[in-house]
Amino acid sequence: MIRVQKLRFSYTKHPFIENVSFDVKKGEIFGFLGPSGAGKSTLQKILTGLLTNYQGSVIVNEIEVKNHNNDFYEHIGVDFEFPSLYEKLTARENLRFFASLYKKSLDINELLQRVGLLQDADKRVAEFSKGMKSRLNFIKALLHDPILLFLDEPTSGLDPSNARRMKDIILQQKSMGKTVVLTTHNMYDATELCDRVAFIVDGSLKALDTPRNLIMKRALP
User: Fold this and answer.
1) What does the pLDDT read at residue 220?
2) How would you classify residue 49: left for phi > 0, otherwise alpha for psi between -120 and 50, otherwise beta?
């Protein structure tokens, strides 16, 4: 589903991401782990076509990302850490608007129900808590039934009950054959959700393995 080869990227004259290569298989949950500022979110932005002035090759769903067109976004869903919602609109109005941007969409009420927001569907987003906005932003990424999901800290700021709800939906997406790429600081979440994780430090890929194997390597002398 994704193939990255010898990726280099810089915001300045100095390299920020240097010689990164990895593959993500179809139907896999693949995680980026690492400290803040390591390059995880930048990698997500490159994979989703927001940053295209990179060197090397980034193939997503058989398309070189720097050459993508608008159809590219019919097949991917993106949930960044900070919600991108219209606060003067209700939750339902937000979802209706974003659904109108795609050729197909899922049932809005069903999505709201799945994240426990159906009873708040007609409340303005400005009145939502941070966690409610996070859950609404998450289902916005699912609206058009994408085959590939990019999630940035999907459980950040959520109470244990709602974090569990979100993780169950992510695992359900995998069971449906979807591919998920997520960024997290939380090794527990990565262990529970991810088939493999890439550990990113200072813009370089330092390790790539299953969460269990990475933990065992760290534990062993």
Assistant:
1) 44
2) left
